[in-house]
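A quick aside before the break. I want you to see a complete sequence-to-structure record at least once, exactly as it would be stored in a machine-readable document. Don't worry about memorizing anything.
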Amino acid sequence: MNVWQFVVQNRVQLLQLTLEHIWLVGVSMFFAVLIGVPLGVLVTRSRVLNRAVLGSANIIQTIPSLALFGFLLPAPWFGQRAERMAIFALALYALLPLIRNTYAGITGVDHSVVEAARAMGLTDLQLLFQVQLPLALGVIIAGVRVATVISVGLATIAAAIGAGGLGEFIFRGLAMVSNQVILAGAIPAALLALLADFFLGKLEKRLARHG
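That is the input. The structure line, written in tokens, reads:
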């Protein structure tokens, strides 16, 4: 049986696992953006926070995904449901590119533009929301793009703890020593990553032109 025949025979399950995969990535990215962008703004305001936040995000990136799941297993709330644990772990891994790009985007705004805005009487909050964030949006979306592609790949590991997703086929194929089953999970995951990269790349270029 080749990969295409396996996909056709298991199309309903493949669709279900694909939707689970998208759900895991989508929810984790929602929380990552909700936390990462404000942290990126905060690190532009304080050198102490800059070192602490970026240092912590860098440390998280060095922890292997399976090891991080192992650390979370004893946690009372996260350990009760594999889906919660997977979303939390994926959100943590997505933080670094989001924080870095938000920081780079805001600090990269032309100094003369910032000074002109201050001369017009804008407060720090007005300067942030009316000048810096709009101009930095293209760079921030680039961070979202990188984080999303990383999350699509890492979400395949979530199947190891029973959180579902396309990793189910990959781990099943490894257990069965079946390349067809492995590819039935790996190819859709790769396509999801490419699609996310393509559409977010288009959005990034559009925002960069308007910035």
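Two observations worth writing down. Residues 28 and 91 are 5 Å apart (CA to CA). Residues 11-43 form the longest helix (33 residues). We'll return to this after the break.
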